[in-house]
Amino acid sequence: MGDGIDYLNEVRMRGRVAAAPEVKELPSGDQLVTMRVVVGRTDARRDGPARSKDGAGSARSKDGAGSARSRDGTASSRSKDEAVAVRTVVDTIDVACWSASARRVAGRFAAGDVVEVEGALRRRFFRTGAGAASRYEVEARSLRRASAPTRASAPRSSTSP
């Protein structure tokens, strides 16, 4: 760009494949494989409202004291810190695989597989019936199946917001 800045756009993530990857053929004839990867956040306290491990959100009583009520009405007497500590917060990230090698690897993944993705964040523009639209996604440069973490610590796609 000529402005002396050493720009950096690198994404590296590990998470679970939310559903079977989809092969899409574009009007140009190019093929694309897309999938969603569910990634746990590292610090739920700073990243907004959390969801419990079973996927249900929780609401605090008006006094904000140690009692919390889940959506099904059950209450617990945990402190705020304890309640946050047992929650898992996840993000669901769209991944696009354009290269032949990335498409081939992604095509072997199944829902629930733990994968590692390296690539770059891209903003894609397209037209819809309502006009122009855009979305952010990770354009995968390399992918691989990773070993699964223990079940208790693994974010599940069913907990995605």
UniProtKB/TrEMBL annotation:
<dbReference type="InterPro" id="IPR012340">
    <property type="entry name" value="NA-bd_OB-fold"/>
</dbReference>
<feature type="compositionally biased region" description="Basic and acidic residues">
    <location>
        <begin position="42"/>
        <end position="54"/>
    </location>
</feature>
<dbReference type="InterPro" id="IPR000424">
    <property type="entry name" value="Primosome_PriB/ssb"/>
</dbReference>
<dbReference type="GO" id="GO:0003697">
    <property type="term" value="F:single-stranded DNA binding"/>
</dbReference>
<keyword id="KW-0238">DNA-binding</keyword>
<feature type="region of interest" description="Disordered">
    <location>
        <begin position="39"/>
        <end position="83"/>
    </location>
</feature>
<protein>
    <recommendedName>
        <fullName>Single-stranded DNA-binding protein</fullName>
    </recommendedName>
</protein>
<feature type="region of interest" description="Disordered">
    <location>
        <begin position="137"/>
        <end position="161"/>
    </location>
</feature>
<feature type="compositionally biased region" description="Low complexity">
    <location>
        <begin position="145"/>
        <end position="161"/>
    </location>
</feature>
